[in-house]
Design goal:
It is built from one helix and twelve strands, in the order αββββββββββββ.
Length: about 180
């Protein structure tokens, strides 16, 4: 019986895993474009928010955006785009760059309503890593991490390097241009 199970796994399941290659281009069904903004609903609790120039190359932080499309709805409330998932509601009024005047995300945290807007300080961030310890003596300040007592984290990927689309990806600079590329967890 164990041999049959192993045989089934090797010849049926492994090819399925092999087909799950990373893909930096999100499923078009997960993307909402409004003016100069593009929103990608990656999970019910993770939204990519881009303004200005859109980017589909993998970055050093986000190499796979091709995830199963979560359930979400889009509508308009006056001049505002509204995106709702099971966990959050995003409201965006097409203006200039993302700011607290035109973008907000509402969600519940431990039964209490929370609102995030660009520029909201993440006071509860537990810290992440540092790029290098070269020349460090003593304590080293940590970059923000992916866990916060505030219940949300924003990763600003606007200026981080990208990978090219070659068979053996090389790091490349982002093209010049005015942009915001934020991921709200």
């Amino acid at each position: 019986m164990r041999k049959i199970a192993l045989f089934t796994f090797v010849f049926v399941a492994l090819p399925l895993f092999a087909e799950q290659a990373w893909n930096p281009v999100a499923d078009p069904k997960a993307i909402v474009v409004e003016g100069r903004a593009r929103f990608t609903v990656l999970t019910p609790r993770l939204i990519r928010m881009e303004w200005g120039q859109f980017e589909d190359h993998a970055s050093l932080v986000f190499v796979n955006r091709r995830l199963p499309v979560p359930q979400f709805t889009t509508s308009h409330d006056g001049d505002a785009l509204v995106i709702r998932t099971a966990a959050l509601t995003l409201r965006y009024r097409p203006e200039a760059k993302f700011s607290s005047d035109d973008l907000r995300v509402d969600f519940d945290l431990n039964g209490k309503p929370v609102t995030w807007t660009p520029g909201t300080p993440d006071k509860g961030n537990l810290g992440g890593t540092t790029r290098t310890l070269d020349g460090a003596r003593g304590a080293v300040p940590l970059e923000p991490g992916l866990i916060s007592r505030d219940g949300w984290v924003v990763v600003d990927d606007s200026n981080r390097p990208l990978f090219d689309n070659s068979d053996w990806p090389w790091v490349m600079e982002r093209p010049l241009g005015d942009r915001q590329d934020l991921y709200l967890f």
